[in-house]
Design a protein that fits this description.
Radius of gyration: 19 Å
Largest sheet: 10 strands, mixed
Helix content: 25-40%
Oligomer: single chain
Number of helices: 12
Shape: globular
Strand content: 15-25%
Number of strands: 12
Order of helices and strands: EEHEHEHEEHEEHHEEEHHEHHHH
Structural class: alpha/beta
Length: about 325
Amino acid sequence: MERDRPIARNTEDASPALSVIIVTYNSAEALPPLLDSIPAGLAGIDRFEVLIVDNESKDGSAELAEAHPVSPIVIRMGYNAGYAAAINVAAARAHPGSHLLILNPDLRLYPDAARPLVERAEKTSTGVVVPLNYTEEGRVDPTLRREPSIMTAWADALLGGTLAMRVGLGEVIGGAARYGRSGTVEWATGSALLVSARVRDLIGAWDESFFLYSEEVDYLRRVREAGFEVVFEPRSQVMHESGGSGRNARLFALMTANRIRYYGRHHNALQTSIFRLGIALGQAIRCWRGAAHRAALSSALMPLKSPTEFMAVRRS
């Protein structure tokens, strides 16, 4: 399933302080700039390793990673196992006692991005640390989130995500002032996050049943329930390419189904029905925008498909 390579680190110490985990799936175009950004991004980190888990890419992502000067460990899953499963495989392979820096392949690290995350993770109250994200255009990407609720679902549906964010009722947290200071949050999108070594051991594996989307919401809830903080640290800065689920109707439908699935795990049937209706209403209002919203509406109204059903359709 994997090819052994020397562990990427800048010291001979056998216990890296930081294990960088990147999950790839047909990521050959996006991956090289991320790998190129790692040396400067990890400036000041004396001990590290880089692990790439490839979910059976067809575009040479694994081969490209193996040839890169960063010399990562490349783990070939042999099939598309999903995001959470790939993280779990990498975490099991990573050195015990290291923090885990989990990055999307379409991310770029700004110089010295990792050190503030590691410094914050050393505090005993900290479970996970997330950086400040920028868009490709250089604008702050609002990645901080409120826990999904009936209020956030209906506010986003009736007001739209942008207005709901501005008035402080939606799931997305906005405001330049909030992104200019560090502090605790309920959760943040999973494009880049550092899991502290203590939480890594305590919380355990990511929930593989989500396959893709909402797995970070679930994981960060478990971190908070264990008594640790999820911390936003704007001294650490990264850039995340735009795109993703919003451009793909099937993936947008999967994201919608997983939002409802996650909410339903923590609330009763009546609450989940009201939440689900809010999601459906929001997609119905926006059906004119294209196939992605129509697919999401269908996903919200019909019996929930399992993530594997969505991916089986994708492969057909």
